Every structure is written in structure tokens, then in C-alpha cells.
Amino acid sequence: MKTTMEGSAEGKKVYKLVLTGGPCGGKTTGQARLCTFFENLGWKVFRVPETATVLLSGGIKFSDLTTDEVSQKASDHRTIFKDGIPEHSVDKTASCPRCLAAAADKPNGSEAYKFQENLLRTMIQMENTFFELGKSCTRNCLIICDRGVMDASAFVSKEKWDRMMRTNSWNSVELRDNRYNHIVHMVSAANGAEAFYSTEDHACRSEGVDLARELDYKSAAAWIGHPYFDVIDNSSDFESKVNRMIECVCQKLGIDTGDRLLTTSKKVKFLVSDLPKDSAFPAFQDFEVVHHYLQSAGPRVQARLRKRGQNGHFSYIHTIRRPHLHGQSIEVKTQLTHRDYLNMLTQRDDAHFTIYKKRRCFLVNNQYFQMDIYKDPGHPRCKGLILLETYTSLSGDKLKGILPKFLNIVKEVTGQPDYSMFNLSLKEDWSNTKKFCYSLHDPFYRAG
């Protein structure tokens, strides 16, 4: 099993997590449980409240932001209101990103659009305040954001979202990929646990389930492309669902939970024979990805830099991978500035090619996939190579059942050294090199 940890140069961790999800997905309960779990570990936990709820509970009425056309139950199924408020809300002041954005997206919804823009500005400033507190904290710090900035993009037209980005000098790579360490989406009970969706606290009619599914999918799709994005579905009971959420956060941080949480997921990798047309895919995000291997700091240690981005905007990650106890390997990932990235490029290992990829990220049936399409220049062994990855606890036929049907999957290659990026990037032929890595745990392997 591979675990991932983010750290700072001082050794203290500040981890910025977005907890999002569809209606009745367990976000509120999960946040409370996550807070207690990390406080028991000795961490300082900050919780950034949902900005829309803060503003709407301060006296702003949703009906004040909409026209009569929007406030009524229109034929447009995205706009479902009763007495000027979302009829599926838990309480009368709670926010609904879908309904708010639907109002902002109307031709005559300028007031709601402006409110949405100001809501994002407020959210960013509130989060920045907590992020600064985290930096000054003397303990390890977990910052839980109740939704994040990309949630607002789920139901606004691309034209209006792009206008909002231009007006405020924002870009989606910074807001989605660089702002937060980890995104966790709690799937709505309306998608896989329907019997638990309609409760006496929710004034939902039968059509509310379908609307909740729509909201759930679109809010998850808003985060497609974040490098560390987990979707917690309803394949288990609610208690196990919350534990899986806590576990996935601990895994990314490299925290050993012992027997407190059951290990449920691992990374699996598959060889894909060819790339279908774009129209075969659900909503996806494509990224330019560049990997450089660095001179290693010691035996059986791999170090690399990753540059990842879209439209000229990039994030930079430094990864150190080394063997761990009990046959596990651990990855320490640190986010870098562009200047630090350029400085570290001087440590490139000449024994390796630079790896160039197109990375496609997408959701299928609540399962998050990333597909790496290797590009030139590189070793001939990488020509035409396409690898699909996901995290799952399933195996055998159940694992095959969740794989995208529109892809021609040749075979599973999880753990096979021929498909390790470290080995694929080697300049020497594998038959003539001593650098080929069969396993980080091989006592005869020496990196660098």
C-alpha cells in the first residue's frame, strides 16, 4: 500500500481539506467526526464554515436575489423553489449551490450573479484567514473547508464562470489545484442509499431524489482534475462510509491509524490499448504533466518533480518515495513555488528521460479515474503507452465491473515494474542497466 503525506520545510503539517458532497451525503456528520479524530491525535483543527450559509443567515433572503420568474417553480428543472427558497433545504436559511447558481445563470439574474461573485470573494478571504492561522500554529494543523471555491462553478454557465474568472484575475488551476491539498466528496444518499434520503427533516418529494442526484454529480464534476480527489460512495453502511472518509484523509497524510480504521482502498493500474474519441468520455479535464527524476538522497530512494497544469497555469510538486515498514512505501509530497521548482531542476538525474504526459481525469459511476497518455519525446518503450489508474477496495469481477466500458483495457498492471514510471524513464535499455527497480523493498536495488 502506498501512503501520501504533505509536509512543510519545518516538519509541521498544514493540511487544507475541502469536504464537499451532495444533499444528505454525511458531510456535516463527517466533518464533526473528522475533527474529533484529528484532535485526539493532537492536531489543531480549524473548520471554515460554508460561506453561503453565513451570508444567508445574516439576513439575506434568497427571494431578494431572484426575479418572480426564478422564484417560482419554473419549467426549467434546475430551478426548484417554494416560497422563494430551495424546497429541499434542511432549514429556511441554508444555502443550495445549485439553486443559487441557477438564479445567477438566468439572463435577468444579475443580482444573484453579483451575490455569487461576492460570495466567492468572501469565501476566499475567509479561507485565507484560516490558512494564515494554520501557518502560525505550533502544532500540526488540519483546516476543513465546508465546500470550496469550485463548488460554485458546478451550475453556472461556462461563459459566466469565465467572466467571473477574468473580472477577478482568477484561474481554475489556482483555485482548484493549488489552493487545497485534498478534496473529499461525500456522495448523496440519493445515489445508492435512497431509503435514507427522505427523512422528516427534509421536505423532499419523490422528484427530490432525482434532483439530489443531479446536484451530487455536478458538484463532484466541478472538482475533476484536482490531483488528490476522493469520492466516498454509499457502497457500505453510514458508519463505514464516515470511517472510509477519515481513512482516505489519513492515507494521504501518511498517518498510521492502526486498527482504528480498516484499510479499504489501494491504487490499481491498467494498460489501455488505444484512446477513444473525446465524445466517448463523460465530463473530463485534460492536463499537461511533466516529470523529472532527481538525483536521489540515498539508497532505495526515488525523488522527482512534477509540473502539472492547464492553459499556461501550473502547480509544482516535489515527491520523495522510499520503502517503509511492513512492505509499504511512503511518498512525501511537498508543494513548491515556481522559483523552488526551477532551483530543484538543477538536481535532475541524467540517467532518466523527462516524462511528458497528457493526463485525463474523469468520473464514472462515482469512481474517479486518471488516465496518463505518454507523449514524445521519450524512450521508444513509452510510445503509444496509455495507463489508467484509480483507488478502490474492490477486486476480481467487482473491480472489472467498475471500469469504464468505453475503454479497451488490455490487462491489470498494478505493481508490475515494466509499467513503473521510474523504469519507463530510464535512458538505458533495461537489459543493460543496473538501475531497473523491481521493488523499493528489494535489498539489492540502489537508486541514483
TrEMBL record:
Would you say which domain of life the source belongs to?
Eukaryota
GO MF annotation list: GTP binding; phosphatidic acid binding; phosphatidylinositol binding
Matching entries from SUPFAM superfamilies are given as: CYTH-like phosphatases
Residue span, NadR/Ttd14 AAA domain: 16-240
Extract the Pfam families matched here.
Answer: AAA_28
* GO annotation terms (biological process): photoreceptor cell maintenance
The protein, known as: NadR/Ttd14 AAA domain-containing protein
Q: Which organism is this protein's natural source? A: Aedes aegypti (Yellowfever mosquito)
Give the classification, highest ranks: Eukaryota, Metazoa, Ecdysozoa, Arthropoda, Hexapoda
What is the gene called? 5573556
